[in-house]
Structures are given as C-alpha cells and as structure tokens.
Amino acid sequence: MRVTCAIIQFDSKILAVQRSAQMKLPLKWEFAGGKIEPGESEVDCIKREVLEELNINIEVKKRLTPVTHAYPDFKIELIPFIADYVSGELKLKEHADYVLADKEALLQLDWAEADIRVVRELKEYKN
Ligand SMILES: Nc1nc2c([nH]c(=O)n2[C@H]2C[C@H](O)[C@@H](COP(=O)(O)OP(=O)(O)OP(=O)(O)O)O2)c(=O)[nH]1
C-alpha cells in the first residue's frame, strides 16, 4: 500500500493532524494524505487528499525519503512531500484535531510509527 503525506508549511509553522478515534491508528498524529489510487501520480494524490481532508490547496515543493513500515496488520510505503499552503479555509473533514507547530515541537507529538523517521528527516531539512 503506497500512501502519500504532506508536510504543509503555513509561514514558519507546519500542520500536523490527529487521526480520529474511529480510524485505524486511533488518535495518532500524522501528516494529511492517503492511498495512491490506480493510475494516479504521487503529486496528484497528495493534492487530492489534502483538498478532501482539509479543504485547502497546496503547492508541492519537495519529495522527502519514503519510509516503509510494517504495522502488526498491514504494511505501507509512506511518501512524504514538503508543501506550501496556497488557498482555502482549513476545515477538518476526517481528523479529530490539528496543530500548527515548529519542527522542534512536532517531535513531541504521539506520531503514527511510520511518521517518526519523516519527522526526524524534516528536522534536518533546510528550506
Ligand atoms: N494519511 C496518512 N496516513 C498515514 C500516515 N502515517 C501512517 O502510518 N499512515 C497510515 C494510516 C492509514 O492506515 C494509511 C493511510 O490510509 P488512508 O488514510 O488512505 O486510509 P485509512 O486507513 O485512514 O482509511 P481506513 O482504512 O481507516 O478507512 O497509512 C500519514 O502521515 N498520513
């Protein structure tokens, strides 16, 4: 299963979202995104997922290192993208909560396991 996710920059802050109690990995923090559909490009996927989940448009800036992670019952390849917020009013359509935080503060959240390496790479990344 290939999953894209977006590290969305709002000025100097980054958006993280919390999965709802009803989703898989309940209440874990993640970056908005989702599964790549057949025939869809990675970039089309992340733009579509962010619009569906958050009601905002983004501009994709950079692809970070994909992370392969095996959870007890499924396995994913998580493909992270740095992106800038462009337009739209942020509305949570599926998630329980969100935060806008700097890179250092992001490390403190209770992340989905696959995201931990992404958050660490992000800390080293200079715009
Ligand atoms: N969107 C997103 N998913 C992530 C991240 N990290 C991580 O392990 N995942 C996992 C959680 C999900 O099992 C899968 C993404 O699938 P999805 O969001 O399209 O669908 P889902 O599994 O939430 O849907 P459902 O089966 O709960 O109905 O990847 C992340 O940063 N963003």
How would you describe this structure to a colleague?
- Keywords: DNA damage, DNA repair, DNA replication, Hydrolase, Magnesium, Metal-binding, Mutator protein.
- Residues 1-124 form the Nudix hydrolase domain.
- InterPro entries: MutT-like, NUDIX_hydrolase-like_dom_sf, NUDIX_hydrolase_CS, NUDIX_hydrolase_dom.
- GO terms for molecular function: 8-oxo-7,8-dihydrodeoxyguanosine triphosphate pyrophosphatase activity; 8-oxo-7,8-dihydroguanosine triphosphate pyrophosphatase activity; 8-oxo-dGDP phosphatase activity; 8-oxo-GDP phosphatase activity; metal ion binding.
- Pfam families: NUDIX.
- The termini are far apart.
- This protein has helices at 42-54, 103-106, 116-124; strands spanning 2-10, 13-18, 29-30, 33-35, 57-63, 67-70, 75-87, 97-101.
- It is globular, with a radius of gyration of 13 Å.
- The model has no long low-confidence stretch (mean pLDDT 97).
- With 127 residues, it is of the alpha+beta class.
- It has one domain: Nucleoside Triphosphate Pyrophosphohydrolase.
- Strands 1, 2, 3, 4, 5, 6, 7 and 8 form an eight-stranded mixed β-sheet that branches.
- It is 20% helix and 39% strand.
- Strand 6 and strand 7 (75-87) form a beta hairpin.
- The chain is built from three helices and eight strands, in the order E-E-E-E-H-E-E-E-E-H-H.
- The site of 8-OXO-2'-deoxyguanosine-5'-triphosphate has 15 residues, from strand 1, strand 4 and strand 7.
